[in-house]
Amino acid sequence: MCFLHIFIIFSNISFPGVYWHQESSDSKSVEVASFKKQDVSKDTDMWLYYDMGGDTSLYYSWVNNYESELDTYMVWFEPPAPCSVLGGYVVVRNIYDSLTAHVFEVFVARLNQKIGKKSYDEAFNSLDSPDWFDYKLNGNPQNPVTEPLISSIYYSVVDTIFPGSNTIIHSYINLPVPMPNGDSIFGIGWVRKEWPSDTLGPNAAFMMNLDGASLPTHSVVHSSQTGLKGWYRWYTSSDGIPFHIYAHIKFYGGPNLFITQWDELGNTYSTLPRDVYLEVVQYEANGYIDSVFLYYSLNSSGIWNVKYSDQPVSGDSIDGHYHFVIPGASVGDTVYYYFKAKNTLGDSIVNGIFNYVIKRGRQGYGLYITDGNADFSTDILVNLYKVDVWNVAEDGYPDSSVFAFYTSGKGAGKPVIIWNAWGAREISIYNYGCDYSTFAESVYIKEFLDAGDAGFWLIDQDLGYSLLNDLFFDFGTHEIPQTSWVNSYLGIVKLTDDDTSALSGKDSFRITGDSLDPIVGPLFRGVGLQPKGFLHHYTLGCTPSWVGYFDSLKSDVVVDLISESGYKVSMRRENIGSNGNSKAVLQTGYFSYIYDPSNPFDIDTLAADSFVIAYADYFGLLGADKPGECLTKTFKIFQPLPSIVSKSTTLRLNLPYKSYINIYATDVAGRVVKEIFRGKMEAGLNAIDWNVNTLVPGTYFIVYQSNGAQKGVRKVVVIK
Question: 613 and 525 in one domain?
Answer without folding.
Answer: yes
